């Protein structure tokens, strides 16, 4: 069964429980303690060790008697694309599509080449750079010894391995709801059968529209560009870029035919030139 | 808070969280619901999805405001003016719920002619003693007839009937005045007032939710009182989707006040005996604390049962059930006054258990300095914190500090079992998830062994003063041999004792109605009675969510597993639901009893048409249509004749440190607030040009208290203390987003990172006729300078100690400050650390004047239940 | 009235996709939308060597065995290409961290992944080059003569074809990503990779010939290098002309200056000039050897800087949310 997420940002209260639950379940380290000044967002982006990231979009608009505010919050995650750029790019087959139709990285197969990193149109996946079980980034008490060993081996050498949301494959196998969805107090993150979620999302847009609220689905349907519908899709109230999402993501591999053709034509041309040079001289 | 207690009878939230989902309109004011109570906020979201209008009134645009339909920015500390304005709107436009008000409130009571209002005395009520800064409340009484019954005027013609007093008192709280005081434009104000009124009545209900934004003020109790008055006028108390949701703090804070961390209350909200009142014998205590009518007529049963639980077989009728073993109050022993006493050397030893006052207290610098003067200090905590490490703070010289410090490792909640009583007064049992790490022990373990060792030490003493220790019962030994071997007590046995039992056979009582005042029952906290109705049954363990949404088989809510308090009021005087839509508890004629989806908060078989017996005792004095059973007259109190120390009706006062003059009265701030004028507790001055900005404090979702800054997953989310500043002020002061700022007051300074945000808006208000632009600065309280992964100065350094007269709550939601770009200079010893000359101090650290005497103890006798009383912080 | 505004007013107004497209899209605190790779000198070298290797594949086919000088050239080129093919995975391993990790690449072959195909290209290329070296050695007598059958004549065009692929795929590898700059060069980058690879291969061959004293094929190599160089220059110019926005990090600023100096001027025009000089005047032998060496080193350095600039500009481009939001088609 294809499962996924419908993240309804109109319900998100920005509590970041999803971020923390994800790190806790997956035993991921913190990404450092830097103050960004970007609203309440100090996580700033998804990374190899941050698989949920809540964006805080502050907007102000002048009114007759002051200003009106909007504070949009949205919990971002790997989109588990139908045509996943990361997966197509991965040279080792570390990235696979599992039985829940989610895009899953097998850390033991990944070689840290980083090609998926540049091939994700959403800037999701990244190499895990930091591993410092002695340092302050891990919650020591929570980190099992096997996990320490596992991470040590996986991250030997400088490249690390690629990390991103697994859609809680392990939890799904056990029949649990993903940690982030479980922790979300307002059901902003809804997990379930992807078709049902899409239906629910469409109904939700209708309800909101009736209430006079601008709502659009992001990634529920194929938006062109080759990525196809997303298994983790969103309901947004502003244009995607406001949330740092590309309005028209492009599947990188769609650029290959042109690339190979250009290379072949050039090579052929040069070969002919070479043939002429070597034969005629 | 006594505000809810004096208005309705019990200090707890009148509703429970899931019921919020049934509201048609929710006013969130004085709480950052979404951020500080994110899990409970789901019910607000549910209500919103069902079409309810969400209103948030707050100085800052927060994550709660982001979810609200209407947001109104308010100048901090002016909520009485705002709510008073709505009361005025409701009364002048005749939009109150008439049948409800007439039947269920004291609107018709006639107040004594000696009473003078703030209208007459420019901001103070009659009975004020300027010297001692206290009220003699006797003039606030009702007029009585020859037989001693309160006079009423059901025609509401009498000028001194409560309803007409209200009209007069609030007549100056106009929309225009609200704008001048609060900075809320009239259009917004009227819209909110209209929404509240239109969403109340037979068919609809409005719920209020508040927390610290209404409590942490020198007139905090009166702020909540204003809400209580308004909700009574709108007829929303005791009804589904209505009520006042007091949002509680720490996970078990409700439980902590129930059983019983407040210095002036014994378990179950029985007042601690006081040496300053005539309460030296049990009979005398009972005389002051037993009410002739209403539920509190049962006080003797609860007190005697409590003493039986404390002293077991030693408690006998002959010896007053060991009443004289109880300590007697001799002043305000709440946390902050205690700090002065430590500083001055009166208090020599200190146990801090699960608190971090070195960062969380007001005038935190003073607290840390005070600890230097102690002989010994014990801290039971799971982490190193600003308190236990006071001796190595910036500027301190450890070699000169003589305090002997003991740091005992505490097991955290996951490492122990027990109940937590959450914000809906519900007890829920939790099991132990993991064994305590290292040497850490549960708090119960520590107390058990303190008790056992003390008993051992004093076993052979013949000194009568040691008898309380010798005679104290302490039989919580675990039945499980392995736990017993570890010395762990059985907390279930503690809960069973709290529930109460029959002395003769040791069997549990099923409810507090079985308690007796003859020594035949023992009960450690009568309000929890029923949680363990027999030895096998622990209702706090119940986890059955089926049935109607009240889910009565989930956990146990005190009292008697009731979810909504005063729910008799959800039916009309005849016992019929006010409307089909708002059906909750009603009289079932055929069965001859009250039924519904909740446990009725009423005598189950008392028919609605039962007449009151004006000369009757206890509950007989109430009619079948008096829903507020804890009150002497069974009614909601619009006017509070006794029980409050700063007025029977809420009036707007400016905070002790303000940026404007009081627009409403000549009286600037609460005339009875707890003032501590000492060198080490300096105030900025009533209105001072040196401190032109408003400062407010709050918490952020990312942390729980100050304790979670050790968790890397949380520390990365908010890595540094910050200050929220409006863009206009930032430009004026050359402050850059993300850069450093220093905020200062007369009390101290702190540095933080600047978060410049359009969410903070300057407000236009008026001060004695002059227009003024007010900038408000917000600083989260969740940081501390010494420990943890996320660091930052504690905002407690900036706040002088100034207290509410009723509950000694501090004023940390509103003060004044100055701000500049850049970091603060290094800390050195200053006047806060220096000892105060002996002539300036009072033996118990009390403020000067009669205040101390008058303000010890809550002095009212209703179940009240806000943590935000002095002792907890 | 501070109620939450409905969506049709100013908040979204400015940003609405129904409305007028603004010059700049409002971003998320200007924070990058995309990630960039941690690719460094090792990946640059890998791409650079891959290009040369590919070019050598073509040259080993073009060199005619009938002519003694070109036979020698063929042999040198084949041996060199094999050495490079063997060395390149080692360079990659310095990036991946551990040798086993390279083997992970050989678990599967994935046509959609240029990195996977490229790896297999490299492997097959090594095979073909190896076979051709064996043939050379067998023909030359270092190995038993019968061993020449290991590599039938067919292997010559096969190595050339694989060479063209390895030179070209490095470009596809970059352009088949989400990176706006690389993506915008989906035709140009592969084409320029082929050109630069061949030019560098010619330069390296010339250098080796000069070292060996085999000056006979130099002229042809130089001409081919000039053609490849000229083509590269044309592609670069065309790239900038067609995608002025996306290529800013490549052609503008410090990085652009470096590219112009080292790749376009010194690395392409320079050798062309030197080679034209060589064909116009009959320079004395040692001077000519110096000229050839200089031209070759310039071309090689230019090729390296080209790869370096491609990677660096890619990283810069990824940091620009404006570019990332408007993905090139
Ligand atoms: N995440 C998290 N949750 C917590 C806690 C925590 O530390 N972290 N602590 C718990 C504890 S101990 C408590 S007591 C509760 C407190 O819960 P809340 O009271 O909801 O929390 P605060 O953020 O302290 O204050 C509430 C709001 O009051 C506003 N405010 C300040 N002054 C005024 C005023 O004069 N009028 C009005 N109307 N509003 C004002 C502030 O801007 C703030 O948004 O939260 C509990 N929940
Ligand atoms: N300026 C300003 N000051 C404030 C407030 C404000 O809004 N503004 N809010 C006030 C309020 S409402 C509150 S509640 C206080 C909170 O102030 P505190 O209670 O002093 O602060 P916490 O950080 O919650 O402290 C809890 C301590 O208990 C420890 N602990 C945790 N679990 C256990 C346990 O099981 N056993 C033991 N023994 N220890 C444990 C933690 O490690 C931590 O050190 O702050 C008050 N101070
Ligand atoms: S969002 Fe990126 S990382 Fe996730 S599946 Fe799609 S391409 Fe892969
Ligand atoms: S880094 Fe790992 S997952 Fe990503 S492309 Fe390379 S091998 Fe695949
Ligand atoms: S599904 Fe699991 S791995 Fe993915 S974001 Fe949620 S908690 Fe993290
Ligand atoms: S847990 Fe839910 S409400 Fe909280 S930030 Fe994540 S998505 Fe938003
Ligand atoms: S921290 Fe605990 S008590 Fe507070 S909202 Fe979360 S779950 Fe509820
Ligand atoms: Mo609290």
Could you say which small molecules are bound to this protein?
A: ligand MGD, iron/sulfur cluster, molybdenum atom
Q: At CATH's second level, what is the architecture of chain C?
A: Up-down Bundle
How many strands appear in the DSSP assignment of chain A? 10
* Cα-to-Cα separation, first versus last residue of chain A: 67 Å
Q: Most extensive interface, residues per chain?
A: A-C, 90 and 95 residues
CATH architecture of chain A: 2-Layer Sandwich
Could you explain how this protein is built, in words?
The complex is a heterotrimer of chains A (281), B (873) and C (329). Chain A is an alpha+beta fold and 281 residues long. Chain A has a single domain (4-280), classed as Alpha-Beta Plaits (2-Layer Sandwich), CATH 3.30.70. In chain A, 29% of the residues lie in helices and 18% in strands. Chain A contains 8 helices and 10 strands. Chain B is of the alpha/beta class and 873 residues long. Chain B has a domain at 693-830: Beta Barrel (Barwin-like endoglucanases), CATH 2.40.40.20. Chain B is 23% helix and 14% strand. Chain B contains 25 helices and 29 strands. Chain B has a 6-stranded mixed beta sheet. A 5-stranded parallel beta sheet of chain B has the order 3-2-1-6-7. A 3-stranded parallel beta sheet of chain B has the order 10-11-12, with no helix packed on it. In chain B, α1 (2-8) packs parallel to α12. Chain C has a single domain, classed as Formate dehydrogenase/DMSO reductase fold (Up-down Bundle), CATH 1.20.1630.10. Chain C has 13 helices and no strands. Chain C is globular. Chains in contact: A-B, A-C, B-C. Chains A and C meet through β2, β3, α2, α3 and β6 of A and α1, α2, α3, α4 and α5 of C. The site of one iron/sulfur cluster has 5 residues of chain B, from loops.
Write the layout of secondary structure elements.
The complex is a heterotrimer of chains A (281), B (873) and C (329).
Chain A: E1 3-8, H1 17-26, E2 53-63, E3 66-76, H2 85-89, E4 95-97, E5 103-105, H3 115-119, E6 126-127, H4 145-154, E7 162-163, H5 169-173, H6 179-183, E8 189-193, H7 194-210, E9 216-218, E10 232-236, H8 256-280
Parallel strand pairs in A: 1-10
Antiparallel strand pairs in A: 1-8, 2-3, 4-5, 6-7, 9-10
Chain B: H1 2-8, E1 25-29, H2 33-36, H3 41-49, E2 53-58, H4 63-67, E3 70-73, H5 79-92, H6 98-104, H7 118-121, E4 128-129, E5 134-135, H8 162-170, H9 175-182, H10 186-198, E6 206-210, H11 212-215, H12 220-233, E7 244-246, H13 253-258, E8 265-266, E9 270-271, H14 282-289, H15 299-311, H16 335-343, E10 349-353, H17 357-360, H18 364-372, E11 376-381, E12 404-409, E13 418-421, E14 426-430, H19 443-458, H20 467-471, H21 481-485, H22 491-499, E15 501-502, E16 521-522, E17 556-557, E18 585-588, E19 593-596, E20 674-675, E21 693-698, H23 712-715, E22 722-725, H24 727-733, E23 740-744, E24 749-756, E25 763-767, E26 770-774, E27 776-780, E28 802-803, E29 815-821, H25 851-855
Parallel strand pairs in B: 1-2, 1-6, 2-3, 6-7, 10-11, 11-12, 21-27, 22-24
Antiparallel strand pairs in B: 4-5, 8-9, 13-14, 14-17, 15-16, 18-19, 20-28, 21-29, 23-24, 23-29, 25-26
Chain C: H1 10-13, H2 41-62, H3 68-96, H4 99-104, H5 114-140, H6 155-175, H7 180-184, H8 188-212, H9 218-242, H10 248-251, H11 253-280, H12 285-318, H13 321-325
Helix pairs in contact in C: 2-3, 2-6, 2-8, 2-12, 3-5, 5-6, 6-8, 8-9, 8-12, 9-11, 11-12
Residues 12-18, 54, 73, 75, 183-186, 188-189 of chain A line the site of one iron/sulfur cluster.
């Amino acid at each position: 069964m294809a499962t996924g997420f419908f993240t309804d940002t109109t319900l998100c209260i920005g509590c970041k429980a999803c971020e923390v639950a994800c790190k806790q379940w997956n035993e991921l380290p913190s990404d450092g303690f830097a103050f960004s000044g970007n609203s309440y967002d100090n996580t700033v982006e998804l990374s190899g060790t941050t698989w949920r990231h809540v964006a805080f979009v502050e907007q102000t608009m002048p009114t007759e008697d002051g200003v009106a505010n909007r504070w949009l919050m949205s919990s971002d995650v790997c989109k588990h694309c139908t045509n996943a750029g990361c997966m197509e790019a991965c040279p080792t087959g570390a990235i696979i599509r599992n039985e829940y139709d989610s895009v899953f990285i097998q850390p033991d197969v990944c070689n840290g080449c980083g090609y998926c990193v540049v091939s994700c149109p959403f800037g999701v996946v990244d190499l895990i750079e930091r591993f410092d079980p002695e340092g302050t980034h891990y919650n020591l008490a929570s980190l099992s010894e096997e996990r320490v060993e596992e991470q040590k081996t996986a991250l030997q050498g400088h490249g690390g391995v690629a990390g991103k949301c697994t859609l809680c494959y392990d939890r799904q196998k056990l029949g649990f709801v993903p940690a982030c969805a479980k922790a979300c107090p307002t059901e902003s993150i809804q997990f379930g059968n992807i078709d049902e979620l899409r239906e629910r999302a469409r109904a939700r847009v209708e309800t909101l529209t009736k209430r006079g609220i601008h709502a659009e689905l992001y990634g529920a349907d194929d938006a062109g560009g080759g990525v196809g519908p997303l298994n983790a899709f969103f309901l947004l109230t502003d244009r995607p870029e406001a949330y740092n999402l590309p309005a028209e993501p492009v599947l990188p591999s769609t650029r290959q035919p042109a690339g190979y053709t250009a290379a072949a034509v050039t090579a052929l041309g040069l070969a002919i030139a070479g043939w002429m040079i070597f034969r005629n001289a | 808070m006594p505000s809810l207690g004096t208005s309705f009878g019990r200090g707890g939230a009148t509703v429970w969280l899931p019921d919020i989902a049934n509201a048609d309109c929710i006013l969130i004011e004085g709480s950052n619901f979404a951020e500080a109570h994110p899990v409970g906020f789901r019910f607000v979201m549910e209500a919103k999805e069902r079409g309810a209008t969400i209103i948030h009134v707050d100085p800052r645009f927060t994550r709660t405001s982001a979810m609200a339909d209407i947001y109104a920015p308010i100048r901090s500390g002016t909520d009485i003016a705002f709510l008073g304005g709505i009361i005025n709107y409701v009364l002048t436009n005749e939009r109150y719920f008439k049948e409800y008000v007439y039947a269920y409130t004291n609107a018709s009571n006639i107040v004594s002619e000696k009473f003078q209002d703030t209208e007459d005395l420019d901001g103070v009520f009659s009975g004020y003693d300027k010297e001692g800064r206290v009220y003699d409340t006797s003039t606030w009484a009702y007029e009585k007839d020859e037989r001693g019954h309160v006079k009423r005027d059901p025609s509401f013609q009498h000028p001194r009937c409560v309803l007409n007093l209200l009209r007069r008192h609030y007549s100056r709280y106009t929309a225009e005045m609200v704008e001048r005081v609060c900075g809320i434009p009239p259009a917004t104000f009227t819209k909110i007032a209209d929404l509240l009124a239109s969403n109340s009545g037979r068919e609809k209900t409005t719920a209020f939710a508040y927390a610290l934004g209404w409590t942490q003020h020198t007139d905090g109790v009166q702020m909540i009182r204003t809400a209580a008055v308004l909700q009574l006028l709108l007829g929303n108390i005791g009804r589904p989707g209505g009520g006042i949701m007091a949002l509680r703090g720490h996970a078990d804070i409700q439980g902590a006040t129930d059983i019983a961390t407040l210095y002036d209350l014994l378990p179950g909200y029985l007042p601690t005996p006081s040496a300053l009142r005539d309460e030296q014998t049990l009979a005398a205590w009972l005389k002051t604390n037993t009410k002739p009518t209403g539920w509190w007529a049962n006080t003797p049963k609860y007190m005697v049962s409590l003493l039986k639980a404390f002293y077991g077989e030693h408690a006998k009728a002959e010896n007053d059930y060991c009443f004289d073993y109880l300590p007697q109050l001799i002043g305000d022993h709440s946390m902050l006054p205690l700090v002065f006493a430590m500083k001055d050397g009166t208090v020599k030893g200190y146990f801090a258990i699960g608190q971090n006052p070195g960062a969380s207290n007001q005038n935190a610098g003073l607290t840390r300095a005070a600890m230097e003067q102690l002989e010994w200090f014990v801290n039971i905590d799971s982490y190193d914190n600003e308190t236990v490490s006071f001796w190595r703070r910036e500027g301190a010289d450890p070699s000169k500090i003589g305090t002997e410090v003991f740091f005992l490792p505490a097991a955290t909640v996951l490492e122990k079992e027990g109940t937590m009583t959450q914000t809906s007064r519900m007890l829920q049992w939790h099991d132990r998830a993991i064994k305590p790490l290292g040497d850490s022990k549960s708090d119960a373990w520590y107390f058990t062994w303190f008790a056992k060792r003390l008993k051992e030490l004093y076993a052979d003493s013949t000194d009568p003063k040691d008898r309380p220790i010798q005679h104290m019962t302490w039989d919580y030994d675990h039945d499980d041999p392995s736990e017993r071997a570890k010395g762990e007590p059985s907390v279930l046995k503690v809960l069973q004792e709290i529930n109460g039992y029959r002395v003769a056979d040791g069997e549990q009582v099923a409810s507090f109605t079985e308690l007796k005042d003859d020594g035949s029952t023992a009960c450690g906290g009568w309000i929890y009675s029923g949680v363990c109705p027999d030895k096998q049954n622990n209702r706090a363990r119940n986890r059955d969510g089926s049935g109607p949404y009240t889910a009565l088989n989930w956990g146990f809510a005190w009292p008697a597993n009731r979810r909504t308090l005063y729910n008799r009021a959800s039916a009309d005087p005849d016992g019929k639901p006010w409307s089909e839509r708002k059906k909750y508890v009603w009289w079932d004629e055929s069965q001859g009893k009250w039924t519904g989806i909740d446990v009725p908060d009423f005598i189950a078989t008392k028919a609605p048409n039962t007449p009151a017996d004006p000369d009757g005792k206890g509950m007989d004095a109430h009619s079948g249509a008096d829903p507020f059973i804890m009150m002497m007259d069974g009614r909601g109190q619009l006017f509070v004749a006794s029980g409050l120390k700063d007025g029977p009706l809420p009036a707007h006062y400016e905070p002790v440190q303000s940026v404007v003059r009081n627009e409403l009265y000549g009286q600037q701030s609460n005339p009875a607030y707890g003032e501590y004028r000492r060198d080490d507790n300096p105030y900025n001055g009533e209105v001072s040009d040196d401190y032109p900005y408003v400062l407010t404090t709050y918490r952020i979702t990312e942390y729980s208290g100050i304790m979670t800054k050790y968790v890397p997953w949380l520390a990365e989310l908010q890595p540094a203390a910050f200050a929220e500043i409006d863009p206009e002020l930032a430009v004026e002061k050359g402050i850059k987003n993300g850069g450093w700022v220093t905020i200062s007051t007369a009390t101290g300074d702190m540095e933080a990172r600047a978060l410049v945000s359009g969410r903070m808006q300057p407000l236009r208000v008026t001060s004695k006729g002059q227009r003024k632009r007010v900038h408000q600065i917000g600083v989260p309280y969740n940081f501390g300078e010494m420990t943890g992964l996320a660091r930052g100065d504690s905002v407690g350094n900036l706040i002088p100690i100034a207290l509410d007269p009723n509950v000694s709550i501090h004023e940390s939601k509103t003060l004044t400050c100055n701000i500049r770009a850049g970091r603060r200079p290094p800390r050195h010893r200053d006047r806060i650390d220096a000892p105060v000359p002996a002539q300036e101090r009072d033996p118990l650290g009390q403020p000067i004047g009669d205040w101390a005497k008058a303000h010890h103890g809550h002095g009212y006798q209703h179940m009240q239940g806000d943590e935000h009383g002095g002792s907890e912080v | 009235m501070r109620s939450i505004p409905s969506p049709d007013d100013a908040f979204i107004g400015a940003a609405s996709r129904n409305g007028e497209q603004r010059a700049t899209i409002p971003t998320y605190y200007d924070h990058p939308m995309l990630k960039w790779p941690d690719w460094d000198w090792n990946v640059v070298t890998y791409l650079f060597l891959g290009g040369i290797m590919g070019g050598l594949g073509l040259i080993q086919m073009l060199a005619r065995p009938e002519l003694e000088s070109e036979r020698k050239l063929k042999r040198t080129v084949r041996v060199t290409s094999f050495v490079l093919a063997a060395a390149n995975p080692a360079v990659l391993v310095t990036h991946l961290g551990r040798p086993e990790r390279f083997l992970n690449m050989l678990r599967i072959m994935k046509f959609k992944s240029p990195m996977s195909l490229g790896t297999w290209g490299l492997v097959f290329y090594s095979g073909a080059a190896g076979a051709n070296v064996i043939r050379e050695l067998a023909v030359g007598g270092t190995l038993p003569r019968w061993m020449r059958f290991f590599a039938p004549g067919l292997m010559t065009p096969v190595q050339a074809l694989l060479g063209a692929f390895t030179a070209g795929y490095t470009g596809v590898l970059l352009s088949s990503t989400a990176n706006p700059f690389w993506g915008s060069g989906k035709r140009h980058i592969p084409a320029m990779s082929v050109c630069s690879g061949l030019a560098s291969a010619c330069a390296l061959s010339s250098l080796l010939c000069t070292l060996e004293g085999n000056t006979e094929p130099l002229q042809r190599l130089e001409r081919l290098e000039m053609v490849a160089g000229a083509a590269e220059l044309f592609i670069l110019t065309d790239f900038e002309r067609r995608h002025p926005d996306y290529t800013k990090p490549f052609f503008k600023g410090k990085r652009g200056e470096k590219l112009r100096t080292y790749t376009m001027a010194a690395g392409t025009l320079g050798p062309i000039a030197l080679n034209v000089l060589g064909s116009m005047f009959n320079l004395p032998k040692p001077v000519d050897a110096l000229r050839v060496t200089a031209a070759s080193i310039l071309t090689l350095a230019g090729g390296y800087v080209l790869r370096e600039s491609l990677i660096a500009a890619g990283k810069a481009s990824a940091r620009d949310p404006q570019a990332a939001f408007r993905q090139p088609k």
